[in-house]
Amino acid sequence: MKLKPGVRVSGIRAEMALAAYVAEGIWRDQGQELVITSITEGKHSRGSLHYQGAAMDLRIWNIDAHRAQRDLLDRLGEDYDVVLERDHIHCEFQPKTGY
Question: Does domain 2-93 have CATH number 3.30.1380.10?
Fold first, then answer.
């Protein structure tokens, strides 16, 4: 696993560290290295969970992105949203019920 230059991990939630660990295995299964392209830095929509350390973007070069999205959803469960964007997978921790 590696971070794109400039990616900041300061303030990342433990739930996202777990998601990165899970994603690393999925990318490895497809013969690729996971690259995280954004966590708490960058420009995102107002109210984005990136700014709370509860979201990250994952590079999808040279992988079956649809399969990676399905595998992430399956392994992380319903407390995570995993959205396949045009050039990355957006993964966020957003529980639907209180803890």
Answer: yes
- Half-sphere exposure of residue 34: CA atoms within 13 angstroms, side-chain side: 20
Q: Report if pTM > 0.70.
A: yes
Read off the tokens for 69: 């999205």
Name which of 54, 71, 45 is nearest 13 in CA terms: 54
Which residue(s) pair with 84 in the sheet? 89
The whole-angstrom separation of Cα 8 and Cα 23 is: 18
* pLDDT, average across residues 30-51: 87
Helix 14-29 with 65-76: angle, nearest 10 deg? 140
